[in-house]
Amino acid sequence: MSSRFEILTTPIADLHLLQRKPNSDERGFFERLFCIEDLQAILSGRQIVQINHSYTARRGAARGLHFQRRPHAEMKFVQCLRGEVFDVAVDLRRGSPTFLKWHGEILSDKNHRTLVIPEGFAHGFQALTDECVLLYLHTAPYCPTAEGGLHLLDPRLGITWPLPVTQLSPHDAALPLLADDFTGVE
Predict the structure, then answer these.
(1) Which of 16, 29, 60, 113 could form a disulfide with 166 if both were Cys (CB 3.0 to 4.6 A apart)?
(2) 42: number of CA atoms within 13 Å, CB side?
């Protein structure tokens, strides 16, 4: 059987986009969201150990930018199961040629795409429609003491959000701007 995924590259090394290939007919479709055999090339021996689900009620609301520090750094597979979001990954890897560069993708229930975010990246998204549901697959369990974050409106990052950000959690609103001496994460 052929792979149910096309692995696409992005302008940032190790950040991938998966184009899922649903089987469709007049009834609807069947779609594989994850397959360790098909995705081993990008998993490189990692295992999915945690699955999270989020619901964002309103268009314009945003979440992020979040990351986990070593030794709890994680790879994430992010997919939108309902609605449409602008999903963003920011390269925080110390010494990376794309350090502090960001890449965004539209993920929706219609385009069947998954953003694969490796360790050393911050992640966030903005809801482009009401009623957005996201599914996240993680290669490490969440560890509160390893959590880090950056303010998603940091001018140094210069992320071009498609809509005005209308809603942030108190936690995300309090995330810091990048310090002048920030050299990245290992």
Answers:
(1) 60
(2) 26
